[in-house]
Specification:
Radius of gyration: 20 Å
Number of strands: 0
Order of helices and strands: HHHH
Number of helices: 4
Helix content: 55-70%
Oligomer: single chain
Length: 136
């Protein structure tokens, strides 16, 4: 009992990379969001105030950035980039109400994704992921 610190347990890395799957979820979400954002165009044209050059450029430009963002999820700046895209989507309220609603809907999806990210980190640090424990 000469050591006052609690024993720190070391766990081996998981047998499969949980972050690879997580990056896939983020990339897939961006692709789905980009498709839904593009589907807002006909809604803005018929129900909203109509398409202007600015609104069309904003919607299409954001969708293109989302498609491109899906391919860079391995980069260290991917999560801030995803958050920026989401903020731009929520700011879609300035383009049309329907576009802003889509932004809010996907903001909830991204909040859940970030909750899952925290959960994976916690489980990995406690050695609870598959392949990290000897007794499984």
């Amino acid at each position: 009992m000469s050591n006052d610190k609690p024993e720190e347990r070391k766990f081996r890395p998981p047998t499969t990379d949980p972050w690879k799957g997580f990056r896939g979820v983020m990339a897939g979400t961006l692709v789905l969001e980009a498709i839904v954002v593009l589907l807002v165009l006909p809604v803005i044209a018929t129900v909203g105030g109509g398409l202007s050059a600015w609104s069309t450029t904003y919607v299409v430009g954001l969708a293109v950035l989302m498609f491109l963002g899906a391919g860079v999820q391995k980069k260290s700046w991917a999560i801030p980039f995803n958050v920026t895209l989401q903020v731009l989507a929520v700011l879609g309220f300035f383009v049309d109400l329907a576009f802003g609603a889509v932004g809010v809907l996907f903001a909830v999806v991204w909040a859940y994704i970030f909750y899952l990210r925290k959960d994976i980190r916690d489980r990995e640090s406690r050695g609870l992921l598959p392949g990290q424990r000897d007794d499984l």
